[in-house]
Design brief:
The chain has two domains: 222 residues, 3-Layer(aba) Sandwich (Rossmann fold); 181 residues, Glycogen Phosphorylase B (Rossmann fold, 3-Layer(aba) Sandwich), CATH 3.40.50.2000. Helices cover 41% and strands 15% of the residues. It is built from 16 helices and 14 strands. α9 crosses α14 and α12 crosses α15.
Length: 422
């Protein structure tokens, strides 16, 4: 039994609400932050969680909500307004709610002797975390889990939908990154972005997300529970199925799956397009499928949990990846043939003819060609599927992820005067 001082960390992460984490079995995304006990307790703050409540819901307003995920993890959710009677003045109401949340979290930091503040992006979460770290004089670790410049170049829009203009988003991200004690990136492509912001390389680290991937995805595909019943329930069992796992938002280009299905239909190659996920584009995607005459070939199954995904992925004919992060790793670990656009970290995982098919970004015509190639050659599909799993097992080794994170935290928590000692 060690006598070391207890270590606690606070994480600012607005990716998922508490309910969403539970419903989709995504708690591993949060609980991995303790690095298997390196931190005795981790508090995760979703500062604007009630933004996802219905406008008519009284849950949008009030005080922060605190719930435990397990014995080492506490989840704190902020509101987008303090008082329901101030709903007519949203800006003031929002400021009041955030000030109260900051005050509440400051007490959590003091009472629990938080040692590190971590933020999962350099925008809203970054600013929120920077305020806390500055006021409490604690090290700030900021994550960059993508390549914002590349995404902005292709979409012509800010990465974070809450920003209206590029320059505001870029100004804030650089401001936060420059003031972080350490900046984490998940791959060399994302690290190139970080370094181009003028961040000292000694203040950076590449941290893979392997330890944030549910363990069910590391199980050999042929040893997993069968997903045939799941496909039967969707009416696509026995079909050639193309799957896109993504939020149905413009950034993720989900409409390109429908475009590819339509092109393939015109060539006499009938497939089913399966969307796993939900978002604001769902209705427009339904309309597009009607316009292109493929309504009967497009299936929406909404959000699914990790066990469901682990069962179904190995049965998919082709996983279509316009822009994916963790979902690309899950598809690869499931041994599915992948067709991906050349953007962000995709080229690290997908190599044409070896581990999949990589096509120029946003060219859904070439995407359809690559899909057709795989569908018409079952042996080729099996080969690239097996190869991409092998590659992903190396890239996403969770133990290596843990070791790299521990190195980062050790440097931040070791007194400077003792770092030079052997």
């Amino acid at each position: 039994m060690t006598n070391r001082q207890k270590r606690h960390m606070l994480v600012c992460d607005s990716a998922y609400t508490y309910d969403f984490l539970i419903e989709r079995s995504l708690t591993e995304l949060v609980t991995c932050k303790d690095v298997h006990g390196y931190f005795d307790h981790v508090w995760t703050v979703h500062a604007v969680a009630s933004l996802f409540c219905l406008p008519s819901s009284g849950l949008r307003y009030g005080r922060p909500v605190v719930r435990k995920l397990n014995e080492r993890h506490t989840h704190i959710e902020g509101k987008i307004g303090r008082f329901d009677k101030l709903a007519w003045f949203p800006l003031l109401n929002f400021v009041l709610a955030q000030v109260e949340l900051i005050w509440f979290v400051m007490k959590v930091i003091k009472q629990n002797r938080i040692a590190i503040i971590r933020t999962e992006d350099p925008w809203f979460n970054g600013v929120f975390g920077l305020i806390l770290s500055s006021m409490k004089r604690l090290p700030l670790v900021t994550g960059v889990w993508g390549n914002p410049d590349a995404i902005r170049e292709h979409t012509k829009e800010p990465v974070n939908s809450r920003f209206k203009w590029f320059f505001v988003e870029k100004l804030i991200e650089r401001f936060v990154l420059k003031r972080a004690s350490t900046v984490l990136a998940q791959n060399p492509d994302n690290m190139d972005f970080v370094l181009r912001q003028g961040i000292d390389k000694d203040k950076t680290a590449i941290i893979r997300i392997g330890n944030a991937i549910d363990s069910v995805h590391f199980v050999e595909p042929d040893k997993r529970e069968s997903g045939i019943a799941d496909l039967e329930a969707l009416g696509v069992a026995g079909e050639k199925v193309l799957m896109c796992m993504a939020r149905l938002e413009k950034l993720k280009r989900p409409d390109h799956l429908i475009q590819a299905v339509a092109l393939l239909k015109g060539r006499g190659c009938n497939v089913k397009g399966l969307f796993v996920g939900d978002g604001s584009m769902r209705e427009s995607l339904v309309a597009l499928s009607k316009e292109l005459g493929v309504t009967d070939q497009i299936v929406f199954c909404g959000n699914q949990d990790q066990v469901w995904l682990s069962r179904v992925i190995p049965l998919i004919s082709v996983v279509v990846a316009p822009l994916k992060g963790r979902a690309l790793a899950e598809a690869a670990l499931g041994g599915a043939p992948i067709v991906a656009y050349e953007i962000d970290w995709h080229s690290e995982a997908v190599e044409t003819g070896v581990t999949g098919e990589l096509v120029p970004y946003a060219n859904y015509s070439l995407m359809a060609n690559a899909i057709e190639k795989i569908i018409k050659d079952e042996g080729y599909g099996q080969m690239i599927g097996a190869n991409v799993r092998k590659r992903m097992l190396k890239i996403m080794d969770p133990h290596e992820s843990d070791k790299a994170l521990i190195d980062v935290y050790d440097k931040l928590l070791t007194p400077k005067g003792t770092q030079l000692c052997g």
